[in-house]
Amino acid sequence: MGIDLKAKYLGAMVGSALGDAIGELAFHCPEKKRLSALVDRTEKLIYTDDTAMAIGLAESILEKGGIDLQHLGDTFSRNFHREPWRGYASGPPTIFSMVRSRGLFYVEAAKSLFGGVGSMGNGAAMRIVPIGLFFHNSEHLYEEACASAEVTHSNPMGMDGAAVQAFAISRGVKLDPQKEFPFDIFIQDLIGFARTPEIREKMKLVQTSVTEGISPGMAADRLGRSVAVDESLPFAIYSFLRYPKSFEDCLFCAILNGGDRDTLGAMACAISGAYLGNEAIPKSWHDKLENGEIIDRLAFSLAELDNGTRG
């Protein structure tokens, strides 16, 4: 097939981190020309909790050879306590505190949040890139994605959104960017992969939003741009599907239409990087990414551990 897995893995991990870091800048500079100039003069592109948790997920997968719920939760907790200033929402720190003080399992603590229904936020989807990469050939991708999500996001919609994002990344890995992008197959597969009615209906709305050619601003209004996964993941996927051949256009679409900009950027650019590979990402951005060498190493290690034999 001629697809360079290392370039794809690197593109997805770095792409997601850059979408996060540049998306965070867009909160303060939400206009393309000014934002581009700000990125150019910024010495280091600083990521948020989105990437910190993706790093933790990659670290845990590499150490355990897959998903180990206790180890994953401990890794998230350790990284949070090292860098609590990354911009975490209230959910994960609350879970970490409950595990420490009451001896609960992470999933048990996660299920107790929000009146016992668990979180339906986008926090599991924003960090899912290592799952979409490592399990891109697995028949159990949905289950692996849900397991990684359940440590902090136990609501069925929170897990389903994370799984659909992982699936989109896995599809990006497998596609050849030199060929025409198979829009109809890609979006139909996403619709079929979703298991909650909320996410499935939003994927159908993504399909019509792209085929009708509505503007990004109108699409954001229609699909949502909040921290709820069913109101952010769809617009991230729309941003990729509107601009599948341009990492930069995908990024700016995702982060310049309001809402949860850093997480929209992280999700959209994870898919874009997985599809286009690292060569599509501006080198000047990659060079300025905070802890870029760590992210590069994790991407390469995941690619090396993925020998394509997992079922």
List the helices and strands and how they pair.
Elements: H1 5-26, H2 32-41, H3 49-64, H4 69-82, H5 91-102, H6 106-111, H7 113-116, H8 123-126, H9 129-134, H10 141-150, H11 156-174, H12 183-193, H13 197-211, H14 216-223, H15 233-242, H16 247-255, H17 261-276, H18 283-288, H19 292-305
Helix pairs in contact: 1-16, 1-17, 1-19, 3-4, 3-19, 10-11, 11-17, 12-13, 13-15, 14-15, 15-16, 15-17, 16-17
How is this structure best described in words?
By secondary structure, the chain is mainly alpha-helical. The protein has a single domain (5-305), classed as Orthogonal Bundle (ADP-ribosylglycohydrolase fold). The protein contains 19 helices and no strands. The chain has helices at residues 5-26, 32-41, 49-64, 69-82, 91-102, 106-111, 113-116, 123-126, 129-134, 141-150, 156-174, 183-193, 197-211, 216-223, 233-242, 247-255, 261-276, 283-288, 292-305. Helix 12 (183-193) packs antiparallel against helix 13 (197-211) and helix 15 (233-242) crosses helix 17. The longest helix has 22 residues, at 5-26. It is globular. The model has no long low-confidence stretch (mean pLDDT 96).
Helical residue percent band: 55-70%
Return the domain count.
1
Overall geometry: globular
Please, what is the CATH homologous superfamily?
ADP-ribosylation/Crystallin J1
What CATH calls the topology is ADP-ribosylglycohydrolase fold
CATH class label:
Mainly Alpha
Quickly count the helices.
19
Which residues form runs of ≥5 with pLDDT under 50? none
Distance between the termini: 20 Å
